[in-house]
Each structure stands twice: as C-alpha cells, then as structure tokens.
Predict the 3D structure of the following.
Amino acid sequence: MSEARVLVTGVGGQPGFDVARRLRQLGATVIGVDADPLANGFLLDGIEPRLGPHVEDPHYGPALMKLCDTEAVDAVAPTVEAELPALIEMTAGMYALGTRTWLPPSSAVTACRDKATFAEALAAVGVAHPATWLPEQLEDAPSGGEFVVKPRRGQGSRGVLACRGRDRARAACLLIEDPIVQTRIIGTEFTADCLVGDDGRAGVILRWRLLTKGGLSIVTSTFTDPDINALVRATLVAVGIRGWCCVQGFATDTGPQITEVNARPAGAFLASEAAGADLTGQYLAALLGGPIDYDRLTYRPGVRLTKYVDTLAVVTTTGDRDAHAD
C-alpha cells in the first residue's frame, strides 16, 4: 500500500523529519504534524504540513483525532516518545476511524521514559547496565566514584552533569529536577536500530556513535558484534518493547553495557538504511497490518554516515517575529 496516507508526528525533530521524508520517497502521502510553526519538516517537498497542539495541551487528542478523520489518515507514525501514553489511550478511537497505528505496550513506554524503572527491568534479567541510584539511595554508592547525574525522565544530553565523589553527586542532585545518579561509563558509544514484531522477533542493526552533538549522532558507522547484538536483544525482551525503537549503550574494556531504550526511531537511522536495512519500508508494512520481512533488515558493516547542517529553504516573511525578538 505505497499510496497510504500516513500522519507523522514531530516532523520538526530529526527522527520525524527523516521518517517523513523516507515515507514520501516510498510513495506514501505524508501528513507532517508538529506543534512548532517553524518546524523544518513542514518545508519538505511533498509533505502536507499541519500545525497541531503540544502533547501537554488538553486539545492534543481531539485535534489529532480530527486530523485523522478529515485527512482520511490510514496510519499514524509517532516519532516523539512523550506522545506515546496519549496515543495508546486514543488507539480504539483511531481504529474506529479506520486509522491504524503500531505502539508498544504501556509498560514498555514507562520503562523507556523512566530511567529508574528501566534499570530495574534490566537488573531483573541480568542485562549489564550502569549502577543506578535515586538521591535517597546514594549512601549505597561508592564514596569516590565517577558519576553522571541526569533527569530521571529526560532525554538526549539535556541536563546531564558529570562529577566525582558521592558528596558532589548529592549536590548535583539539587540542581536537577527529579534526578537519578548512575556510574559514569567510559567506552565507545553505540546505537542499535531495532524493529521488533508483535511476536518478539527483532531486526537489529548496530552503529558506533563516532561523533555526537546534543545527543544526536553526527557521524555514525555500522558494525557487527555478537556480544553486543545478544545484549541488545536481551534488552528488548526485558523491556517488552514492540515497534521501531533504538537501544543505546557503551562498549567498555569489561564488556558492553546498555544505557537506554528510546521507543522511537533514532536520529541517524539512515545509516542503517544506507547499509541495506529496509527499516522504513518494513515499519510501514507492519504499521498497515502486514508482516515484517526480516530478511530485508540485514545490513553491511562499515557504512559511515555523516550529518551536517544545510539550508533547507530561504523565504521572505513579514519580519514581525524577528523584529520583536530580543
């Protein structure tokens, strides 16, 4: 169903931007939605741009349902993790309109968004991950350890502080709302682009994160490693995730460790597609209720992708907003 009408959320973010563009390249009609009127995805060729409320706005649900109805949307492809709880509640209503979606279970979304819950899920099945403490548990942490203090429900690299010593970690917790403390890991960071079917079978593509800025891979290269592959698959099972997601971790001198799972496409998944994995095509097939061809999720190692900032469009405006900016 290459001419499916697919609504993609968050087209102002890197995952949403690239998912929308790839779906359009595959022949789908793409309705691109974002809460920011300046979202760059609105300027993609062939995209039908629609401004919508932020997920925290009480009008978010009704507005999205109206779009699904008036735009005759066949499927909704979310790329913003914060939207998932609301979308899960809306699933029955969307299906009544003839709109499909493919979402992970609520328990998996909670584990992906809450780092304490995530650490507990990995610990329960013995998946290697950084030692993790809440502020009130810091007496159990080594007094002279290397730590990372971050928002318990944050994402990317926002609000992350590195420090040495338990006392400094305790002080850092005062600077971050709802913090969590983890052992600082030294190693080479990796991402696994994953597509997990409802039967639990998964396609896994591994990439080194060679250069990152603001939490986004700027330079990334595919690779293979049986130990990391096995650890990623064990993580997917521990979390119970389904759909398109990405797993992040570090390869260290003592073995790989997992740091997080994002219940959305990664910002540099195009590297995996360049290496031969048909992530978007197979996601679209599953989104529309079809089977996943896992043979099309194989890939070549050693394919490097470099992202860069480019000018997407130059337009003439009234200048009102710019004129009043400080």
